[in-house]
């Protein structure tokens, strides 16, 4: 719950900053969509992060999705036993949620660190937006 709230605050901070860069609402919307798509791609939703080369691998650290996805997955899967029984399929019982986290490369221990990173991203974007507002007002 706290992780998703921090994600919402971070995304709001990014959109405030992008809205202040643009002169028109339409331009701000385009900036926001492009920024959101870039964060989704480099956050691990649409692209396997292990396949990134060294030249663009650092971009994932500026994506709020990168941190929020690990928080969400750790919250949902930590110490969970997964059972699957569907007709016409092989039944799988007792799959450990922590095993699934390890397959994804996530750790439950990183939850607090990821929340801290989301907070830093939020404060950073809000600070940059404040500086931009201060300079455009004067």
How would you describe this structure to a colleague?
This protein is mostly helical. It has one domain (2-137). It is built from five helices and two strands; from the N terminus they run H-H-H-E-E-H-H. The protein has helices at 2-21, 25-42, 64-77, 97-104, 111-137; strands spanning 81-84, 92-96. A two-stranded antiparallel sheet has the order 1-2. Helix 1 (2-21) packs antiparallel against helix 3 (64-77) and helix 3 (64-77) runs antiparallel to helix 4 (97-104). The chain starts with a helix and ends with a helix.
**Which secondary-structure class do the elements indicate?**
mainly alpha
Q: Helical amount among residues, as a percent range?
A: 55-70%
> Which ranges are low-confidence, i.e. pLDDT below 50, for 5 or more consecutive residues?
none
Overall 3D shape: elongated
Give me the number of helical elements.
Answer: 5
**How many structural domains in the coordinates?**
1
Hey, roughly how much beta strand do the residues contain?
5-15%
The overall pLDDT, averaged over residues, is 88
- Rg over CA atoms: 19 Å
Question: How is the main sheet built?
Answer: 2 strands, antiparallel
Compute the separation of the termini in Å: 39 Å
Number of strands: 2
Please provide the ordered H/E string of secondary-structure elements.
HHHEEHH
Order of strands side by side in the largest beta sheet? Answer: 1-2
